[in-house]
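Changelog note: in this version the structure field was regenerated for every chain. One regenerated record is shown below for reference.
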Amino acid sequence: MKYCDNCRLAVRTNRQTCPLCQAQLRGEGESAFPEIKSVYNQFILFFKLLLALTIAGAVASVAINLMIPESGLWCHYVLFGGLCFWVLLITAIRRRTSIPRGILNQVFWICIFSGIWDALTVWHGWSIDFVIPCTCIIAIVALGVLGKVLRLPTGDYLACILVDAVFGIVPLVFYLTGLSQFVYLSLSCVAVSLIAAAFIFIFHGKQIRSDLARRFHV
């Protein structure tokens, strides 16, 4: 804290001059407001590890695809998935309104856009076989990461379960109706959805039950 010899007052500021008499202040400066760390600063190591894993996964997928060209060109799906993951993550952190609803809206428009693109380029089914299941899996993972990082309120965990259920049901419908030809991703999406819902129930089941009791007066 700085001190003004002229006014004989201690001043909590980083200024060099006194705000009253403009005389020179002495002492160590101190901000009048507490430092508020952003989410990125609070979890900087976590985000760095996440970014490193994303880059490593992208590079590895390209390398494997080049080494096994007969498997088809699939690495761009991995790259697109990594990009979608970070777009969902950054958008949700910046908005911080209703995170489950925001992610659901983004996934909805990605799926609609990919379906229209697939239809306009002579339907090959890649939107149903790859893009939609991958986007749903990435959204479920992003939702779990955001729940951990942002410490969502109790009411949002129930919304997370419902959103995870939607992300699991859509690929399941494609699988059961025979629309999906590459069933592994659809079934993987269903499995990831069930695992995510189970984790939420295990770690936040008490809060969810309390919130339901409060909402329905039971």
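Spot check on this record: The chain has seven helices and three strands. The beta strands are 2-4, 9-11, 26-27.
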